[in-house]
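Service request form, structural biology core

Requester: graduate student, group of Dr. S.
Request type: structure prediction, single chain
Budget code: on file
Notes: please return the result as structure tokens.

Sequence provided:
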Amino acid sequence: MLITSEIVDLNTPTGVMRTYVHRPKHDGKVPAVLFYSEIFQQTGPIERAARLLAGYGYAVLVPEVFHELNPIGTVLGYDDAGRDKGNADKMAKDVQAYDTDNRAMIDYLNAQPWYDGNLGAAGFCIGGHLAFRAALQPEVKATACFYATDLHTNIIPNQPGQHSMERVNEIKGELLMIWGKQDPHIPADKRAELYNRFAALPGLHYTWHEFNGQHAFMRDEGERYDAQLVNLGYQLTLQMFGNVLK
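Core staff response, request fulfilled:
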């Protein structure tokens, strides 16, 4: 399937948010996916992942997650400087600001003639957490969270009662939770704590997968990339999106 890519700048309560839109080139209506990046914003690996999903018939929106804190178009490097800046940005943005970011993207989608009204979310690393956060929006029907960081911590700034896991019972769509067993950012005991909290909610619709992979195994650059796990991760994601959004 041929795809097209464009840039839209969306107004949010915390400033203009550049959003990259990758979607099928045909004129028909398609489902959409809010796709959240790592702390580095839309790098080459993130753009390629978004374009891959678009090639399966989805309009994929990639927002600049820290748009309030960087010039428009900022892409951080996969190096110490980029990691330090991205982690500092993560500590400087209240989690509720992502809720208004999501509303801005949903409002944009609702105005597009090519959007069919079926919405999913996905993300890697901090983006896995932000995809989980997007699942709080009632329009989101299916969400794929890859090694979602900081669900088990209270690091990301939040107001009382606003931590993402404090609101997990509000999620009505399907969740796909994928983890790496060799991921030091979400160790085994913390994954177990999260799993037990999920399991205690009988109304939560989710699947849970733990692979023998390192943190960022989906990133097709660097030594942690695992092509077999990448293919499995996309297979699970596309299966869920196909069942729920199409």
